[in-house]
Amino acid sequence: xxxxxxxxxxxxxxxxxxxxxxxxxxxxxxxxxxxxxxxxxxxxxxxxxxxxxxxxxxxxxxxxxxxxxxxxxxxxxxxxxxxxxxxxxxxxxxxxxxxxxxxxxxxxxxxxxxxxxxxxxxxxxxxxxxxxxxxxxxxxxxxxxxxxxxxxxxxxxxxxxxxxxxxxxxxxxxxxxxxxxxxxxxxxxxxxxxxxxxxxxxxxxxxxxxxxxxxxxxxxxxxxxxxxxxxxxxxxxxxxxxxxxxxxxxxxxxxxxxxxxxxxxxxxxxxxxxxxxxxxxxxxxxxxxxxxxxxxxxxxxxxxxxxxxxxxxxxxxxxxxxxxxxxxxxxxxxxxxxxxxxxxxxxxxxxxxxxxxxxxxxxxxxxxxxxxxxxxxxxxxxxxxxxxxxxxxxxxxxxxxxxxxxxxxxxxxxxxxxxxxxxxxxxxxxxxxxxxxxxxxxxxxxxxxxxxxxxxxxxxxxxxxxxxxxxxxxxxxxxxxxxxxxxxxxxxxxxxxxxxxxxxxxxxxxxxxxxxxxxxxxxxxxxxxxxxxxxxxxxxxxxxxxxxxxxxxxxxxxxxxxxxxxxxxxxxxxxxxxxxxxxxxxxxxxxxxxxxxxxxxxxxxxxxxxxxxxxxxxxxxxxxxxxxxxxxxxxxxxxxxxxxxxxxxxxxxxxxxxxxxxxxxxxxxxxxxxxxxxxxxxxxxxxxxxxxxxxxxxxxxxxxx
Length: 705
Hints:
- The protein is mainly beta.
- It is built from 6 helices and 35 strands.
- The strands form 2 sheets. The protein has a 22-stranded antiparallel barrel. Strands 1, 2, 3, 4, 5, 6, 7 and 8 form an 8-stranded mixed β-sheet that branches.
- The longest helix is centred in the N-terminal third of the chain and has 18 residues, at 2-19.
- The two termini are 47 Å apart.
- Residues 1-42 and 684-705 have low confidence and may be disordered.
């Protein structure tokens, strides 16, 4: 029986090793330099950690072509919807950029991610079990988009481009360009990342009401949209003795417009919408260094400003139907300290504190109709220990909230509370690469200002109305998870997220007018079962025994990565059904080292996603990508086709209404992308082109040690 178990574990391990687009210790090509030290780095395409899943983006052409949103939608287990928000394995996601929360949600979040080129991203971390060091306001889970690279001890530069087109009623183009420069010397390091994104796309939407066994068209729209995004991300790092000072400045500007033809009961329209979004972020971090690398003291100050302008008017008219603006200022100061403990192997004690202030104002045609203030003070302590084959994490976070505000007509319900948020994790290690993990944490989510904003920042017509809800209350979560992971890649997990006052999108119908807003659900439980397994194709031709013996480079291996999940939303007094979601990613290496990657997503219909029922398969898309490296691996070129069967469409019914919501974007597109690393003669630059350095959990600055 022990032999059988050993074979199963070895099989899981070789599956994982072969699926990673990286060399293992056995597959790494050795480099010899006279009087030089060769530094070995490792990269994994998908890496399972006890508290997070890490997706490498930079070196995966099928993920880094197009926008960040398009890449995210291809990640196994993640659901991104314009209507119902973003979830990963049943957990509502709080989205961070380089370790800092964006504090936007749903429509604004999707627009932001759609305007950001995927080739500017290094990796994406989905932290499914945020510990005490993370804000308690992270809710169910965190999606952390990492754009930073390491500064090298020489000038390095790379240029990225992605160009694609769609051809439905007319041809539409999408173009991304970015350039990354960085360097480091004995005094300081610097980094500059500049890019732009231009995109044309179409959106067709219809809302129908089922009445007397017939469908009545309430609204039918045809939108032709243009988006422009420009960004600058810069960083400086100074070595002050053994200490380090990091300075970051980000500038991100979105300018979007659309021309929308609409018709329905009682109206016909031709409208123009324009929106501008300017986001600026400044961060100063001071890191105190000690003799022990496991001892850390860090001070960080962050200021963020986000200004939005939205306008809707009929074509040819100067007077706006909607003219809404908002301005948000956020600042926080935090300190984190950690040191090793003597009574356990690799043990660590971490403590820290945070103070954060947020001010948000929204205006409608020049009249302020929301004035919102939020102050948060927090402290935490967390203990990590290791005994023999067991790892334990026990922590707690205390947060005090002072939230108040007013609309044009009334005071908001204040939220002034002090709360404790415990977390605990236990892990049993069968060996270094196989483990069983149990997790629990209590979290809270404060409604983002985008869902509190009472003003509409979306297209509307006489039969459709969008608005925020300034009276939304925070959501409290209890999150439980059990997870078995083998060799970082193969895994089986179950998690339960139990929430009170969950904020959800709700679409209702009053006569023939559709209202789209957000509200609190008193109670909801989300169950999620997930499974992931890489399968090398040689298993079917050579068998298990020969597959285990093979010493292979996964970059040249043919394999299939299978992900499957089942999700069930349990809402009191609402009959709900669960749904299955599937993802298949296949890599086949063709002659001349041309790599073919096929990605297929499918979510089965008839299940409930909060208050929506999937009437048709969701995220039903087949994508192809062919890539090849040239010029000593300095140039990577890929051609791709997304949604080649043109099956990616959305169709929902809204609970307790006769509404059917259909939407279709021009998702079938064809294009190419390239990434060129400018050559350097510096010997320090010699490294395996297929690898990136694994980042330490605590390093959040743009330039890392």
